[in-house]
Structures are given as structure tokens and as C-alpha cells.
Amino acid sequence: MKLKNRVAFYFVSRLFWLMLIWGLLIGISIVLFSFFLGHNKTETPQLSISKIVEDTVVVDHNLSVSSETKEDLVKNKMWMQVLNEQGDEVFSFKKPKNVPDHYIPGELVSDYLYPAKKGYQLSTWYKTIDNQALTWVLGKPMADNNPFFYWMNNLWILSIIIIGILIALFFGKQLGAPLLYIVFWIDNLSKGMYEEPSYYLKFHSKKSRRNKAEYKTYQELTQALSGLTSTLKKNEEERRLLEKTREEWMAGVSHDLKTPLSVIKGYTVLLSAQEYDWEQEKVRHFAKTMEDRVEYMEQLIEDFNLTFQLKNDAFPIQLEQKDLVIVIKDILEQLKTLPESKNKQFSFETNREPIFLNIDTKYLKRALENLIANSIKHNPPATKIKIILHEDLSHPRQIRVIIEDDGIGMDQETIENLFDRYFRGTSATSNNSGTGLGMAIAKQIIIAHGGDIEINSKLQLGTQCNITFPIE
Fold this sequence. Notes:
Structural class: alpha+beta
Distance between the termini: 43 Å
Strand content: 15-25%
Shape: rod-shaped
Number of helices: 14
Oligomer: single chain
Strand order of the largest sheet: 8-10-11-13-12
């Protein structure tokens, strides 16, 4: 059932139950009132009040009844009163002392409905005699003068009110609790609190709450809110991490740019100083140093542009089928010319030739160069560096590139942070002239080619870099 249909059914069904319960309460009230009122009624007196009214006469503006009527009143242990329009007594016979001689409006009705209140039962009659509106009151003591029935009527009325309030609260909770829960949740999200309302989590466990029918009605909505909360929370954490990383990057770039700029500025000050007359050889030396610093800054800016492109999936990759054996051999030939490559031993192994893979030659070369150069620059002389290229045709088919050395290795902290942007190792033999982005760029390029990379290393035992590419 769709959410809107289930919500409509839920509200209609609860309103139906509310009306049904109220109807039952009203029916029970009518039955109980009838029982109490019927129980309170004494047997019908043999003397009729209408007969007494007919037997009442006015003599010299005074009321009187016949002796026969008086005998009947005495015989039935009854008394009578006649009241004027103001409720004052104008005639009575055998009236007990506890019976009032004046009635306020509504008092007769109350005494009639609740005879147990005062211990006697009343009957009344209204008639006009000689332009006087008179009221006859016929009373008789109750056979069972028990005030319990009077208080039971009052207690029942009070209980009906209390039960009505409790039912309203119950149905209000059933109808309103899940809506308030959702409203508080949305309010939390609007305030940047990416979690369920703490008030509900405190008094209701998540499992018991969602198993209730009123919460099941909005199951799709709460699931959507839960997913939205998780997404917003994750985005907020990523945003904070990005802000932290950006600050670190900016601090690092500012520091790395400041150093070559200070060198360039120093040489330009020296060259422009009039008190010095520099020799041609010295000028060339200054110019060469400034050129190196400019190239370093260009490389730094290029690395940052590339890493941001990779981060934002704006990588300008152009795939074409190339022989990976030739690509790696070319990389090795170029890296062997580096000054740091002297006194290091290189070897290359492959289980077959050629091995074709869809790659962007320019960028994959850069990734592999960064990884191999890392082994060259951060290891002492006589280090053996081996590159193994292996095509695995089993399922799943893949190509493995292994770059391993028997150098100084890395500690666990360095391994964990190796692919972080702007991270450099702290080994004493390390060459820290790079931009600090090479390994991060290498990993991003490999991932962009659908590959994966894993580093295994132990101090003084060497490092192994395992790269895998799936074969379509």
C-alpha cells in the first residue's frame, strides 16, 4: 500500500475507533443511569398526587385538604407541601423537620433525581387556583436510605470525563507522536544536527518505536529521513575534512613557493645592485639557480592542477591500446639517467610479450615513474629495484605490475599516509625536494584506469608495490 493511502487508512481507522469507544461509553452511561435511577425509585405510592391536587380547596384564601386525604397521607407515611411561585411554602401536612419550607430553582429537580441525597422521594404537580400558580410536593421517606447511589452517580460522571480525557490523549499520541517525531527530526536537520531527535531516542528504543503501528505507517518516510541524515552527516564530515586538507595544502604550498621565491628574489637583488659588477660566469650560475627554482614552482602548480582534476573527476584521460612491456622499458631507460640511479641495480621481468592494455600512456607513465622514482630516491646505493609485469589469464583476468626493492623500507605510519596529498616521508636518506603530491597523483591515475594499488613494506627489509589492472 502506498504511503498516502496507508496514512489515510490509518487516520480514518483511528477516528472510527474513537467514535466507537465514545458510543460505547455513552451507551454504558445510559444503562447505568437507568439502573441507579430505577434502583432509587421506591414503590409507587397508593395515594395519587393528582387526587390530592383535586381534593385541595381554598377557604378564605387558605388552602386545606379533606380529612380522608389526611388519613391516607398518615396511612402511607407521606407528607405534602404546597409552594407559591417564589418557592415558599403556603401549606403543609405532616412535613418532617428536615424538609425545607423554601426551594430555590432546580432544587426540586435535584431532590427528585437523587432521592438518596436527602433520604426521601418527591413527586410534584403544578396547577393554578384562583390566579395563583401553585406547586404540590408529595414526599415519602425512602425504604433504603443509602447515599452510595448518589455518590456513585457523581463518581460515574467524573469517571466519564476522566476516561474521555485519557482516550483523547491516547489517540492524540497515536496520531501525533509519529508526526512530532518526524517534525523534530526535520528541525534537527535544518539546524545542522544530523541525527534522530535525542528526546525520542532517550525514552523509546529505535527497535520498539519502529515496531509500533503508528510508526510503521510512516516507514518509507522515516527510512528516507534516515538515508538523508546519513548522507548529510557524511557530506558534512567530508566538507570538514576537505577544509582541513585545503588548509594544509595552502600552508604547504605557501611554504614551498616561499622558499624558491626567496631564492629568486635574493639573486635578482644581487644582480640589480649597482655596487656589484658580477662576472659572466657568476651571472650564469645565478640564472641557472633561478631557472631551477622556477621549474620547481611550475611543477608544483602543475601537480596541484592535476590532483584537483583527479579529485573532481575532471581527468582528461584518453585511452588507447598499448603494449605495457614497451611502456615500462621506456620508463626504466629514462629513470636510469637520474643522478640518484647511480650504484642502483635494476631488473625487469615479464611472463609474456607483448601485454596490451587500454591506457592513457602520458598519465600512466607518470604514475609508474612516480612509484619507481620513489624507490630510487629514498633508498641508499646498491639497492636492487625489480619490476615484474605479469598477465594473469585466470578468472578474473588481470595484469599485475610489481615494483619491489630491498631498501630501507617504511614504518606503518608512513605506509598509512603514503598516498595522502602533501605527505613526505621523514627518513634521513629521503630526498624531500619533490612537491609531496607524486604518490597521491600516482594512485589517482591508477584508480582512473580501473586499477588498484597496495603497499607492503618493513623497515630494513624493503618495499613492495602491487598494482593490478582488470582485463575487459
